[in-house]
Amino acid sequence: MGRWEPNASGRLSEAAMELYVERGFEQTTVAEIAQRAGLTARTFFRYFADKREVLFAGSAILEEHLIAALESTPASASPMEAVAAALDAAATMLGQRREFSRRRQSVIAANAELRERELIKMASLSGALAAGLRRRGVADSDASLAAEAGIAVFRVAFERWVGEPTDRGLATIMRESLEQLKALTAAS
Amino acid sequence: MGRWEPNASGRLSEAAMELYVERGFEQTTVAEIAQRAGLTARTFFRYFADKREVLFAGSAILEEHLIAALESTPASASPMEAVAAALDAAATMLGQRREFSRRRQSVIAANAELRERELIKMASLSGALAAGLRRRGVADSDASLAAEAGIAVFRVAFERWVGEPTDRGLATIMRESLEQLKALTAAS
Description:
The first copy, chain A, contains nine helices and no strands. By secondary structure, chain A is mainly α. Chain A has two domains: 8-47, Arc Repressor Mutant, subunit A; 53-186, Tetracycline Repressor, domain 2. The first copy, chain A, is elongated.
């Protein structure tokens, strides 16, 4: 093992994101990421399985946050209220990393394989939310619909947040998008 | 070119689905599919690029049906009413093929690569619906939300339809699921 480096994981993420934006994801090597961060490739592999992992390491933590929030919602909350609480937790976690999120989004949008990976992560998030709702006693199809609707709100709100020149927080935009979905479905 | 075979495409689809259910998707070869259909591998490749294509050839036609239905909805229809009309058209197309749909679903559920491919097709369908709504003058985020909500309804209703021992039609279950989504979002 090499010597301990302060905040190696954060420096590697930062360096990777810079290079992905500058050169494109495919054109960037792990050696270049490590060099930009002032670390070795060996250190890189202590934190990430590969260069794709830098972009998706946060997804598992995001899922944990969402599910923990869902589970701490009072039993009296409706399925969509519980989902909204989970989205609030996601907004709190991601909200502090707008610049990172914005760059990550542009890197993923530019690469078909990464877009597919992101779809899979979102489907996994939806499945975890639905399972969490079923554990709260919500019926099967209600749980699936509420979870899918929640992920739809999450995606649309997230894209607006990273895409718009706005100072408004992600949580505010998520709540707005949920209201928007409510208005859309009411008019059908 | 070999001689013309009546309904070769349908016979190949049928034979492929039988083998995928019996042996699993990965264990089935194109040669076996052709043999089961009483045709040659050469004929198979005249209709399908590969054995995966048998499962997804319908997706492009489904997208065309959905978009055509969306576009023929009166301009006065709300975004979700237009989406509901598109879902009705999907139900009409898929509704006659319940047994095929049921087997296809079980084959896809058993294979990670096929599940990912299905996710991508669903995302493409959602993107096409959103683009269709924007062409009707629906604002960007409303179009995305309505399309994603529509696909959520489609997926949940489709799973109920193939999974439940029911004589009810897919269109009926889709309308019910849309009402269910309306009730869920209203209670948030």
